């Protein structure tokens, strides 16, 4: 069986040196022209449009430098390592033989994934163990489509390296067929595009700031929007909130920090994957404690994820978590709400301990989900979970937002409406040191 060329080895018949030299010269001239225009363009750091233009210039220069590097590799063969600050790493390759269950990885792929080159390459069944939980179904779907329907692979997912760093990897692959037309193996190339995506987000965020309403800017200054775009809660670097939601749900979450000098009450929010595309949604807060570690919310989230994946139902979580925390030095839960959601039936089950019940917004009105702990959601429904304990006053203020929340086009828009109305100093303001989780059922 013929094998595809490894992305780490130069082709047996490289392109003509003269033609590649000409491409390198053109790329370098273009890079010089872009740099000259950038230097001659006035930039005001306080002007959002100027910041957006600067970010675009920087991204273009990075990509032109990467193009120069890749063309040089075509001319000279692979370099020992990518240049420092490069947006695109060199490409690694792999081939998985379905007939012999053997895998063949290039050395660069080991480096991209942070693995020891002396270790055996992972099989296709083992590869998802490196992928963050939220992206595993995406990788499985791409591989299945490739092996079963012979569809090319072209997608991205995030991997967790042994040192704990999370990187975004772009994978392109295709099936290798035998003489009978059956899939004999799968070949793929992968590259680390983390820095490229980071630079593109900078451009996107600066562009969005040009179109944002001034009142949104005031909210951002108070750090009361999604943690992906503003100041995150202390545990956010340890346990990431799903950036792309969960099956059948649109998610957005935020943390309204306490005023300066006010102790943090250890609030958390989370969306944990369950079997059959289900999701455990939770928000909560620990009792005040001067001895609790800063990572306490992350530790509680880890405990909840472990209990949920072991099959503990939302109704059982308050007692099970309380007993578990009694064996640790962590403070007890002061207020929390736990919701299990099944996208196939749109069934929601919930339980809450010492905290507010979930709020459901539908058809221009809102109500508190109390009494029966099971309900069926509908397309367009918006669910709001929060940790504020000011009682009926907070619930009344949130339910008053029903016209805004039922008209929200996304969970992010709903979160913005909540943080704008309740995170400021106006008549509805005052939700400090509070975690908010907005869940919308797409149409």
Per DSSP E runs of 2 or more residues, the count of β-strands stands at: 15
- What is the N-to-C succession of helices and strands? HHEEHHEEEHHEEEHHEEEEEEHHHE
CATH architecture of the largest domain: 4-Layer Sandwich
Under the CATH scheme, which class of the largest domain? Alpha Beta
Which class best fits the helix and strand makeup? alpha+beta
Strand order of the largest sheet: 2-1-5-4-3
- Termini gap: 48 Å
Number of domains: 3
In percent, how helical is the residue content?
25-40%
Structure annotation, total helices:
11
CATH superfamily of the largest domain: PPM-type phosphatase domain
Strand content: 15-25%
CATH topology of the largest domain: Phosphatase 2c, domain 1
Mean pLDDT: 76
The unreliable regions are 1-14, 80-88, 213-231, 425-429
Shape descriptor: globular
Would you kindly provide a brief summary of this structure?
34% of the residues lie in helices and 23% in strands.
Features:
Phosphatase 2c, domain 1, 443 residues, alpha+beta, five-stranded antiparallel beta sheet, 3 domains, Beta-Lactamase
Question: What would you say this structure looks like, in words?
Answer:
It is globular and about 75 Å long. The strands form three sheets. It has a five-stranded antiparallel beta sheet with strand order 2-1-5-4-3, sandwiched between helices. The protein has a five-stranded antiparallel beta sheet with strand order 6-15-14-11-12. The chain starts with 16 loop residues before the first helix and ends with a strand. Mean pLDDT is 76; it is low at 1-14, 80-88, 213-231 and 425-429. It has helices at residues 17-40, 48-76, 107-113, 133-149, 194-211, 214-221, 296-309, 317-326, 392-399, 402-406, 411-422; strands at residues 92-97, 103-105, 153-160, 166-177, 183-192, 250-256, 267-273, 279-286, 333-342, 347-353, 359-362, 365-368, 374-376, 382-386, 434-440. A hairpin with a 5-residue loop joins strand 7 (267-273) and strand 8 (279-286). Helix 1 (17-40) packs antiparallel against helix 2 (48-76) and helix 7 (296-309) packs across helix 8. It folds into three domains: 1-78 and 197-211; 92-192, PAS domain (Beta-Lactamase); 213-440, PPM-type phosphatase domain (Phosphatase 2c, domain 1, 4-Layer Sandwich), CATH 3.60.40.10. With 443 residues, the chain is of the alpha+beta class.
